[in-house]
Amino acid sequence: MSKVMLEVNELTTKYITRFGEDIYAVDHVSLKVEEGKSLGIAGESGCGKSTLALSLMGYYFPPLHYTSGEIIIDGRNISGMNPDDVRRSILGTEIAYIPQAAMNALNPTQKVIHLIEDVIQAHQPKTTKKEIYQMARERFELLGLPAEVLQKYPVELSGGMKQRTVIAISVILTPKILIADEPSSALDVTSQKMVIRMLRDLMEDGFIKSMIFITHELPLLYNVTDDIMVMYAGQMVEKASAHEAVFDPLHPYSKGLMGSIIVPEEGLRDVKLTAIPGVPPNLKNPPFGCRFAERCKYVQPECITSNVEMRQINDDRTYRCIFTEKELRKAYKND
Ligand SMILES: Nc1ncnc2c1ncn2[C@@H]1O[C@H](COP(=O)(O)OP(=O)(O)OP(=O)(O)O)[C@@H](O)[C@H]1O
Ligand SMILES: [Mg+2]
Asked: What ligand is nearest to the CA atom of residue 48?
């Protein structure tokens, strides 16, 4: 087994609303990402993907609060570390996060090179502007971006170029782990492919050691990541290799997610098109038992009355369901 770059054990975090209500958006999530590997996180809107990303960087600001669990980055336990220390010694260098819609949040009044100066000088205040320019130029060229981009304002860049610039800036301090939150959503197909290519190159060329890729589109992850974790209502419901998660999902929700693809990706043309009826539960007051029970066509009384734990099939594969693998396969065969 290779070195584990990120280990998260039973992480639980919540939002406390201004009315004092708790929203457990990340509920006892455990995961591991090894060096050289990428993990995809999929699930419907509101299931807690972005909250998990923020939570596993240890960067907590109200209304988001750490509740319990462990976060270990490259052997260093950062659980409970104060946000200032996290910003100083973790963000950008150990782990970098490209937030959802980051490309639209770039400061429009600053040229790209000035954005990079801000990032570098926050960590290495003694670096001169000349050194930063040199470094940025080399890095952009290595990543296949023209150096002229450095002298442009964000508004002068196309959507695809803007997103690739955001990615290049986020890895400027050579973080070990990169978390990309919906990096290709809202881009046209060509730009989307270029962004995905760039992320794959970052891994293959060793700029980053591990990657987490978040999207609600499971088939997109198949082309990018080694493993896939499926989230539902704040919980992990399945984790498997990308191939198994897409072509042989076990949890009824993963199965439904796979079947609800609207635009099948290359190689996934035979997938049945269906939608999952119903909506996820409210995270303010999630039901006991299986959170997917209300929408599950295989539901049994036990799903609602018992505490549904994860089942481990092997080191790489787990799912949360009362049914055994054999029972699920039989049910799917009879569909
Ligand atoms: N600032 C906040 N205060 C209170 N609740 C929040 C806050 N941000 C998110 N939530 C709630 O936490 C849950 C998880 O939200 P999150 O943004 O992590 O989902 P997501 O899976 O990333 O969704 P999407 O696919 O739409 O990006 C949702 O139910 C959401 O309503
Ligand atoms: Mg999100």
From this structure: 1
